[in-house]
Task: inverse folding
């Protein structure tokens, strides 16, 4: 999902050159403040779902094979959930298992060096977690942007999304990994077991 924020300002036509325009009213400065708010509230926009997703089976399967003290920590998640969650959130490869991934992808503003821009466009790319919902993510972004407008006295900013908001609407991943119709996963599992007989065909790892 890609969320776009269009930030427009009111520019006095008599002050359109860099000679007279004050930097406090610059639309790029306003956009930077919005970006800062989004960064500061990143965990609100994309909350962690640790303990509810595919990482649960992964941890259970690794308890017998990891060494002390990790096996103790993984076996007692009721006590060490916070520690494991921090480990998962530390790297992008594991963070995607517990949280939607958010990244700034495009920031566009201005057409020429000596012309003050009247708007800026910021695009944010999301890779949604199965337990997250596109509609809810967009609402959280809108809330953060609205708070930034009020806090920084920015005139206007419009948040919109071009893709379907029904992505992840169920809130869960309903894929049946044992369904024979899942030909791709079944083929992968068959080949892995054929070439690596000790391989445990956990769907959350493949």
Result:
């Amino acid at each position: 999902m890609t969320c776009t924020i269009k930030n427009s300002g009111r520019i006095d036509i008599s002050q359109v050159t860099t000679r007279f325009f004050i930097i406090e009213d610059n639309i790029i400065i306003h956009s930077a403040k919005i970006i800062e708010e989004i960064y500061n509230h990143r965990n609100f926009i994309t909350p962690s779902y640790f303990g509810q997703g595919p990482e649960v089976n992964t941890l259970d399967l690794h308890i017998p094979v990891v060494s002390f003290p990790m096996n103790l920590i993984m076996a007692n998640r009721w006590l060490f959930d916070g520690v494991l969650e921090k480990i998962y959130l530390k790297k992008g490869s594991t963070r995607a298992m517990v949280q939607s991934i958010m990244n700034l992808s495009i920031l566009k503003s201005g057409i020429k060096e000596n012309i003050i821009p009247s708007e800026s466009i910021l695009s944010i790319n999301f890779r949604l977690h199965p337990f997250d919902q596109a509609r809810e993510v967009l609402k959280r972004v809108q809330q953060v942007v609205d708070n930034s407008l009020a806090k920084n006295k920015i005139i206007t900013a419009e948040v919109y999304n071009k893709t379907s908001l029904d992505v992840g609407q169920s809130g869960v991943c309903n894929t049946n990994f044992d369904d024979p119709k899942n030909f791709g996963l079944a083929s992968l599992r068959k080949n892995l077991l054929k070439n690596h007989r000790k391989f445990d065909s956990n769907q959350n790892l493949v």
